[in-house]
């Protein structure tokens, strides 16, 4: 009898699932790839640190003035050979309309940040299941742009040698560029390729177009990067080829996101379950085997015993 009892106890202990104390590498990777509800404090901290790091690295890239000016001349010749060197004409035409160019200067200085942060806040509130993936695309885009600043220093059109571009911020004394006037020492003036004004605006526009439910808002999503392209050219802060570089960086960002999550952000579920404490969510007491149920407790009546 004692031996039978011991074996029965051993079998029961083997049947009881023990709490998981360590995650396998595959399980942890699957967990990281699963969309989860973002934490507000973490996102604020992450965005603040990321932008600070981006600015620090971008401005730490050596200002290779001579090489940046040579690269600008090369870009300008390529556009002329393509018959698409229209930046100077747009710059002079818009600069002749004072109220318009002043508005574009402030557009260049502010919407780059306001719209991007606004889209992130909207995603956080209305599309939490897609937030992390869309944010990853933005971060990967920005990260690869830093490589471009280092490998291909480029002067903006307004700083070209012998060029006839108008620095609209200097002429109209507006705060429209971190690389003009009194603010020029705060930013690397020779980091024009790729244009993150375009990279971030196309990211914002595509996100709005893919996820917004109001038709006119979706249209605005498509119009926004087009207007941004006009602004960066009219203010002589970028060549249009810089915009192409920004789009290529964004394509890289979406490729990283698709590789990590297995799909593009808009294809992920809109909402995700609320977070539950620490991992794993199940508690040890929830993993105990169910006891054999008493027939009387199941039916509320005592079983009928038939005697011979």
N-to-C terminal Cα separation, in Å?
Answer: 30 Å
* Low-pLDDT segments, ≥5 res: 4-22, 277-298
Main beta sheet strand tally, sense and closure: none
How much of the residues is beta strand, in percent? under 5%
Helix content: 55-70%
How are helices and strands ordered from N to C? HHHHHHHHHHHH
User: Helical element count?
Assistant: 12
Radius of gyration: 30 Å
Kindly report the average pLDDT value: 80
> What's the total count of β strands?
0
Q: How would you describe this protein?
A:
Keywords: Membrane, Transmembrane, Transmembrane helix. This is Phosphatase PAP2 family protein. Its main location: membrane. The relative contact order is 0.15. The longest helix is centred in the middle third of the chain and has 29 residues, at 98-126. The model is unreliable at 4-22 and 277-298 (pLDDT under 50). It is built from 12 helices and no strands. It has helices spanning 2-15, 25-33, 40-60, 65-82, 87-95, 98-126, 128-151, 168-172, 196-211, 215-234, 240-261, 295-299. With 308 residues, the protein is mainly α. The radius of gyration is 30 Å and the shape is globular.
């Amino acid at each position: 009898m004692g031996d039978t009892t011991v074996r029965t106890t051993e079998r029961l202990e083997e049947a009881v699932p023990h709490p998981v104390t360590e995650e396998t590498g595959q399980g942890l990777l699957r967990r990281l790839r699963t969309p989860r509800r973002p934490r507000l404090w973490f996102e604020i901290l992450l965005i603040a640190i990321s932008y600070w790091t981006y600015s620090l690295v971008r401005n730490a890239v050596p200002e290779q003035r001579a090489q940046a000016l040579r690269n600008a001349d090369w870009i300008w010749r390529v556009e002329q050979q393509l018959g698409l060197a229209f930046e100077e004409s747009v710059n002079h035409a818009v600069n002749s309309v004072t109220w318009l160019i002043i508005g574009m200067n402030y557009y260049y200085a502010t919407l780059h940040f306001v719209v991007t942060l606004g889209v992130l806040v909207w995603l956080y509130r209305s599309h939490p299941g897609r937030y992390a993936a869309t944010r990853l695309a933005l971060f990967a885009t920005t990260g690869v742009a830093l490589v471009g600043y280092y490998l291909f220093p480029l002067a903006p059109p307004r700083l070209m040698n012998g060029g006839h571009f108008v620095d609209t911020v200097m002429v109209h004394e507006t705060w429209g560029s971190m690389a003009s006037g009194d603010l020029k020492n705060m930013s690397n003036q020779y980091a024009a390729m790729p244009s993150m004004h375009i990279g971030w605006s196309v990211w914002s526009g595509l996100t709005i177009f893919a996820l917004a439910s109001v038709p006119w808002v979706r249209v605005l999503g498509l119009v926004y990067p087009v207007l941004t392209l006009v602004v960066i050219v009219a203010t002589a802060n970028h060549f249009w080829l810089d915009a192409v570089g920004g789009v290529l960086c964004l394509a890289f960002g979406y490729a990283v996101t698709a590789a990590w999550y297995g799909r593009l952000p808009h294809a992920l579920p809109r909402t995700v379950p609320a977070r539950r404490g620490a991992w794993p969510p199940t508690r040890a007491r929830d993993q105990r085997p169910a006891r054999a149920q008493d027939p009387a407790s199941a039916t509320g009546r005592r079983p009928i015993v038939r005697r011979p």
